[in-house]
Write a structure and sequence with these properties.
The chain is an alpha/beta fold. The protein has 2 domains: 117 residues, no CATH class; 121 residues, Rossmann fold (3-Layer(aba) Sandwich). Helix content is 59%, strand content 9%. The longest helix has 35 residues.
Length: 254
């Protein structure tokens, strides 16, 4: 399976990160080596073994991640790999992107797609009442006077925005649905609902931070469309949301 352009961005930045870290570790090994001999003859050996193990695990994790992307299937430790990507590699990817001229937004998109790939590779399944569909408030029509952040079912279903369709989709599959105005409210909604899995619609910034904050809960992130710019009358691809929901739900009829 050929990786998509967004995934290729991540793979390229990952390789660059490993090479730069290897150079840094070489300097970290070589410079103190002479001084360690003066403390104890065995210290250079122990120090070299420790750094060699770190380099081995770094490259092994990177190769495992690349093979998982290329095969499109879970190989080993997908859940731990997702944590490694979210907590450790992603900040490095942003830095590497800046160095080679890749925008932060593209790196975020690559991270979201890679995360979705790893989540789907893990074949995580949950029951409908343990799945949360989390939406940003900017999907609601900007001129609407109905408050839905406390209870999305307050929506009158006028059809001016996609909230009506998303509620119908959530009802069809009997999953929980909520709207958040920002990261703080989103975290509170997650704590209150205690989902086993999340389908989230948002912009790059909110999705990347949300995926990092909620780990190890599996999250499939769907980027919203912004025909009028950020944070106003954004759109959600209903078919992508539906597919993400079905990726998490147990096979129907069992």
């Amino acid at each position: 399976m050929e990786p998509t352009p967004k995934k290729r961005i991540f793979i390229g930045l990952l390789v660059l990160t490993c090479l730069i870290l290897s150079l840094f570790l070489f300097l970290l090994w070589y410079v103190p080596l002479l001084g360690l001999k003066n403390i104890h003859p065995s210290l250079p050996y122990l120090y070299s073994v420790a750094l060699a193990m770190f380099v081995f695990f770094m490259f092994a994790g990177g190769l495992l991640l690349i093979f998982t992307i290329l095969r499109g299937k879970d190989i080993l430790f997908t859940q731990r790999l997702r944590g490694l990507v979210a907590k450790v590699l992603f900040p490095f990817m942003i830095l590497m992107g800046k160095m080679v001229g890749v925008s932060k937004e593209k790196v975020q998109q690559s991270f979201i797609e890679l995360n979705n790939h790893l989540v789907r590779s893990n074949h995580h399944r949950t029951k409908p009442n343990r799945l949360l569909l989390l939406l940003p408030h900017c999907i609601q029509d900007f001129d609407c006077q109905i408050k839905i952040t406390g209870n999305i079912k307050n929506c009158k279903g006028c059809g001016k925005c996609e909230i009506k369709e998303l509620i119908e989709l959530a009802d069809q599959y009997q999953v929980k649905i909520a709207v958040a105005t920002g990261g703080t409210l989103a975290r509170r909604i997650i704590v209150e609902n205690r989902p086993e899995a999340i389908v989230a619609v948002a912009c790059e910034l909110d999705l990347t931070s949300g995926i990092q904050d909620t780990y190890p809960i599996p999250v499939i992130g769907i980027l919203n469309d912004r025909p009028y710019g950020p944070c106003i009358n954004t759109k959600a691809d209903i078919q992508k949301v539906k597919k993400a929901i079905l990726d998490f739900l147990e096979p129907r009829g069992i």
